[in-house]
Give the backbone structure.
Amino acid sequence: MRTHKFEFNVLAGHKTPGNERGIALLMVLLALLLLSAIGMGMMYMSDTETSINGNYRRSFTSLIRRAPRMW
């Protein structure tokens, strides 16, 4: 005969098998991994945009400095 261990879920107000608690932990860890990856990607993009802006500023400044010599 097979018996199931049930635990009372206080928030939902119903009984669930005890082995279903592990899936919630797994889902939370996967969601955290996904959010971390998105955050790291946004940080990388921000750093890239800063580099692009710095390159543009340096090239523009260089162009302005060379302008009097061009005439």
